[in-house]
Design a protein that fits this description.
Length: 464
């Protein structure tokens, strides 16, 4: 109980610190994006680097409930001779993805050594050559021509266009420069709209988002005050919240929306679609992060984002990039390097199966457990995702976990993270769910109405 009160106090102080810093800022909310936030399934996406067994892997993705595929549209690989564009590889992939029903998110990615010089940079103690961003007039105009060609070619697929990836981190060598990026991105966005006025455009895929010690990251806050956001459908971010901070997700999105709306122009309407999560995952390379913990984390992440009307939630990554257990990039995948499914794959599939067509209703935050309430429009079936609350430095998901559902409502069935049935024990006004791997998915009796369930929960929460 004491730990829970401390956690709630820390959350409150975090949000207050963000608002305190933001009151001196001018923010401009972006326009509403063309994203479906009505049901969870439409928001689930995956980042890919490559797929080797195309038909089987795309079928596997679709079966898991994935509906958006994010990939680099790499300028350097397309234009390796001045003015000659070779899109053939992407043509095939775009057609296949579209035929299968996926929406594509293309990252307009990176620079080109035909137009800018390469420099030596050091990353993780290793030296490497990188091409500086297209900031010269010659290079920026060439990038705009590449963008024009790409949008002309692929607009029929109605993709999401993301302008760059993490320009506030290692993808803008030698170091991030928000003003150079804003100039390039603003010109790019208007170039896209000149070709396709109805295009969906997002940026910047920011890596540095609000944290305890950095409530208002400089790059992102500067960008939100720029003219660029008036052109965008949404601002894309990469939260990568620490696993112990995952239950802070609602405060995180609230902080970002504060950044966009404080002192905003009265003529520009604020929107819950202001932000999307275009990359977010968890690597099991870190000590103590098991495959089951990764699976639990990703499932909760998707549900938290759905509760906050985040229209795109891209999971990083589809496949482990290698077999080194200590290399983070080799352990982000939801399938292994050999293509076999991890628990994370099964967990995402279970989220989609349980809640894919459901709408978010309310969030329950007890000192001991967290519950997210959804309702299925077709039959008004009330469903609840439930898991035990943990501290900042407690993150394991174990088969021995249990959670409490403190609502006077009848639970019909309950299953765990991957669909295995779990025990349901009624003890007065409390129902004990588990043991099993959380989150647990509860189906309430058909006689339970979602408004009544949420109201009963509020009444029960007053006990604490």
């Amino acid at each position: 109980m004491v730990k829970a009160k401390i956690m709630n106090l820390l959350r409150y102080l975090y949000v207050c610190s963000v608002i305190f810093v933001l009151v001196t800022m001018r923010g401009i909310p972006v326009s509403a994006g063309s994203f479906d936030t009505s049901i969870l399934r439409s928001s689930i996406g995956i980042n890919i680097h490559q797929i080797s067994n195309e038909a089987d892997e795309l079928a596997q993705m679709w079966d898991a409930g994935i509906r958006i595929v994010r990939l680099d549209l790499t300028w350097q690989s397309i234009e390796n001779r001045v003015g000659l564009y070779q899109f053939e590889h992407y043509d095939h992939l775009a057609h296949v993805l579209s035929e299968k029903g996926f929406r594509i998110l293309f990252i307009l990615a990176y620079s080109n050594k035909l137009y800018e010089p390469q420099i030596n940079v050091v990353e993780n103690g290793m030296g490497m050559l990188k091409t500086i961003p297209p900031i010269s007039r010659k290079a920026s105009m060439a990038f705009e021509r590449f963008v024009r060609a790409a949008v002309t070619r692929y607009q029929k697929f109605n993709p999401i266009w993301e302008i760059w990836n993490e320009p506030d981190f290692g993808f803008w060598p030698p170091e991030p420069n928000v003003f150079d990026y804003e100039a390039l991105a603003n010109a790019t966005c208007h170039e896209i709209r000149a070709v396709d006025a109805t295009a969906t455009v997002v940026a910047p895929g920011a890596a540095k988002t609000p944290r305890w010690m950095r409530p208002v990251p400089e790059f992102l806050s500067t960008l939100l005050r720029s003219n660029l956001v008036r052109c965008l459908d949404a601002v894309s971010v990469h939260p990568y919240l620490n696993i112990g901070d995952l239950d802070w997700t609602p405060s995180f999105w609230s902080a970002l929306r504060q950044m966009a709306s404080i002192n905003a122009s009265a003529t520009v309407a604020s929107s819950t679609n202001t932000f999307i999560s275009s990359e977010w995952g968890l690597s099991t390379s870190r000590d103590g992060i098991t495959d089951e913990t990764q699976a639990s984390y990703l499932a909760k992440m998707l549900m938290y984002n759905a509760m906050d009307s985040i229209g795109v939630s891209i999971i990083y990554d589809w496949r482990d990039d290698g077999n080194d257990p200590k290399n983070p990039e080799h352990r982000f995948g939801i399938v292994r390097h050999d293509g076999s499914a991890k628990p994370a794959y099964k967990a995402i599939k279970q989220v989609a199966a349980e809640l894919g067509d459901a709408k978010p209703a309310c969030r329950l935050d007890w000192p001991h457990s967290i519950g997210l309430v959804f309702v299925q429009p077709a039959d008004n079936q009330v469903k609840v995702a439930l898991w035990p609350k943990q501290g900042l430095f407690e993150w394991s998901a174990k088969a021995t976990d249990v959670a409490r559902f403190d609502v006077n409502a009848t639970v019909s069935t309950a299953v765990d993270l991957i669909g295995a049935p779990v025990d349901v024990k009624v003890m007065g006004d409390t129902t004990i769910i588990g043991p099993g791997l959380p989150p647990f998915y509860l189906r309430l009796m058909p006689t339970e109405h979602v408004d009544a369930v949420c109201q009963k929960a509020v009444q029960m929460l007053t006990r604490y």
